[in-house]
Amino acid sequence: MPRIKIISNPYENVITYRKYNTNSASWESIDANSDLWKEKYKSSVFPFVVKNIVDVIFNEFRSGNEQITILFEGTDDEFKELESVCHDEEYNGLLRPVTSVRYLRNARDILPDVKAIFDQMQPLISESVKDSEKVEREKRQFADVSKEAIPICVMGNYSSGKSTFINALIGYEILPSGDESLTAKIHKIEWSGYDDRASVGFEYKGKSIKLTFEEEGLPTLNTEDEEVLFEKIQQSLVGTEKESIIIRVSKVLEVLNDGDHAELLDDLSDIIEIKIPFNRKGVFGQSKNKFVIFDTPGSNSATNYEKHFEVLRKAMEDLSNGLPIYISEYKSLDTKDNQSLCDKINSMREMDSRFTLIVVNKADDANLEKSQFAPEIILNQSVPRNLYAGGVYFVSSIMGLGSKNGGEFIGNHLKRIYKKSYEEFSDPEDDFYQQLYIHDIMPDQIKKKSLEESEKQQNIIYANSGLYWIEEQIEQFAGIYSPYNKCHQSMLFLNKVITITSEEITHTKAICEERKKDMENQLERDKAALLGELTEKETELHTKFCNEYYPDMKASRDEAEKRISKDKLAEREAELTKIRKSQTTFDEQNINVEASKKAVKEEVKKLTKADFSTLIGNIKESRDKTKELKETQKSINILVADDLLSEVKSDFNKNIGTAQLLLNKSSVNYWNNKSNEMKLSLAALVTGSTALSDEKREELAEIIMSFDPVSFEKQIDEIFIKTEFERHAISLFGIKLFDNNKLNLGKLSRTYNSELNEGIENISRRLQNSHELSFKFWTDNLMKVIRENITEYNPGLNKIVRYIAEDEKRINDLTERQLRLTQYTHEIEDMMSWKEREKKDPEIEE
């Protein structure tokens, strides 16, 4: 039986393949001549190419009627896409998709934790990059990326209907539309958060201007300046006090985009920010995602689009992970002037061109009859050839907008078009009945779902206009795909911050070493020699102590690791079973069915750590006493399983806490002993030196021996994050029940012991890093005091000593910050790293 392995890592955007060699009983690389080596199958978004990948596997590795096993390593979301394709009838049951023991967590599941870590890190990040221009933009960018904003960038040429398409997404006529370009301004549009509030903001002559709209009345303007532009805005609003917010906002935007007084708008900022209610009808208006729409100026010339893209870059300078939506008319898909625009879209780092949606607007006016329409021809045209990723979507923005606003347009032009086409989009019996979504070009499994879901839509015009499925795809991007990019961006950003911190440590160390050399050059030769010996001894001992620490702590780690056995769990399970049977009056020999059932139900109601609402239904009404006995026994098993699992979780957290205290105590003792050893060694060097007077030797030796002990107080609370282990334990001990509703005690004990060991190692390493750093602070301060005493009668040298102390403190502060940043980075890396399921590899089981 052929076996193929697909390894998909959406965090790194890499897909690799293996085939199983039965002779060597091992996985090996796919033959280099296979189509699976094509770039699009190695770096594309998996759901967009999964059908093609499966076709290649089916055609290249099929051997008669032998079933091909496809072993998948990746996320559950992606496996569902693979499973959906493999179960298609065209493969005649010859494909068997199975999940591997290795897997990755879905990004949407870990993103909340990633954001929580970044919230904790903000002070560290701010301190690390406050003086660095290198990542200031990245800092601002990720501050936005780590929020929930999803940028949507709508681009295209003049007359393609971008504004009408955006209005259709919003569900209201906000943006002015027409066949001619108005002004080269970027509209940044967000949901206002309320149905009766809106605002329009921009800069005019260097001053921030904001108009705030309420349910009724004229908008408030946050300036009393008398400007011609403001007068025109006020004139446009005369008589609109009782009109809707939508009408009043659109009036203002008409003024701000009016090409007839372009010279007046020269002092207007390139970006106009709009916060507006979204129509609740449709997917977009009901979404919980926070979309930010960018309406970019259209262009049909090379001279204009350069300026327009600079405006867009400025608008998105603090954002990333944008979803590009390219709007075109059907007849314009292959025009030459689109090539440069496509190149610009693909080059923008702020946008994820892997998900570009190509929207063919005004598709109801295109000739899409089957005899004329050929997807392969369309995909070979300029725009799809350069931008095709997530699909080509056909839409009538006017009909989509009308499906949300009930055909109530502000002007007569769109209203007339909507009414003329109404029957075509709403009546299946009409001779020209239109279902634009059926022409969409996308991967087969997505197309299949599109047809099924669009057919179910109650708002038939919304579905037939093509707008429904476009909004579904935008929602898919925001909910499933965008989180991968956000997680990946977080790692890139953190690595930059850590690199900058490392560079600063290196730079500060170099300065500090130069100061030390300068100090030695100015000291008398014998004192310089003494200081050199002291420094060398301090370095030697510090290195020795750090190397000996981990082996020395082994006994404490072993003492802290209180393992649990399967037999012990079985004993406790038996004890809990007795207790539960007593509580529920359960007696196998002489069961009172009704009384026992009632008691069990009462106990189930008390459960708080699991949802066993379906348990009541399991105890069926039956006259069969044996059946009742079994059902009641199962229910008691579930109660016992919950009791035992709760005790195990509590015991885990208790042991982790105890281990923290034990390891901390041992670590503190270790470093206190080593600090005394350090003081004795340095004092001995001072006492035996001839570079100092007898009086000075005794004084300095006394200073060394009486130097304050190492302080660990600041570090202790940062070592052990109780909630981290509690959350970890809850997820780890979600042990599945057997058919008899009992816990897998063997798995439970193995998981417990493994995770306790890992937790103790984690605490031990954190303590080691933290306490080593505390010891370094202590030795640096001790050496500072020694230098001050040796150079006390030389003001110039004392100044250098102070500078050295400041440098060393700066180095230690940076090192501590770098350590914490690295720990946070490892936590995020761990979330995105490969995991192993609690089951055998299905290939091994065979």
Q: Any descriptors?
A:
10-stranded mixed beta sheet; disordered C terminus; alpha/beta; 5-stranded mixed beta sheet; 57% helix; 846 residues
Put the structure in a nutshell.
The chain has 846 residues and is α/β, with parallel strands linked by helices. The protein has 30 helices and 17 strands. The model is unreliable at 608-623, 714-731 and 841-846 (pLDDT under 50).
Describe it for me?
With 846 residues, this protein is an alpha/beta fold. The protein has 30 helices and 17 strands. The strands form 3 sheets. The protein has a 10-stranded mixed beta sheet, sandwiched between helices. A 5-stranded mixed beta sheet has the order 3-2-1-4-5. Strands 6-17 form a two-stranded antiparallel ribbon. The longest helix is centred in the last third of the chain and has 63 residues, at 625-687. It is globular and about 110 Å long. Residues 608-623, 714-731 and 841-846 have low confidence and may be disordered.
> Treating each run of at least 4 consecutive H or I residues as one helix, how many helices?
30
Helix content: 55-70%
Rounded Rg: 35 Å
**Termini gap:** 11 Å
Main sheet characteristics: 10 strands, mixed
Low-confidence stretches: 608-623, 714-731, 841-846
- The proportion of strand residues reads 5-15%
Strand order of the largest sheet: 11-10-9-12-8-13-7-14-15-16
**Structural class per helix/strand content?**
alpha/beta
Number of strands: 17
Mean model confidence by pLDDT: 83
Morphology call: globular
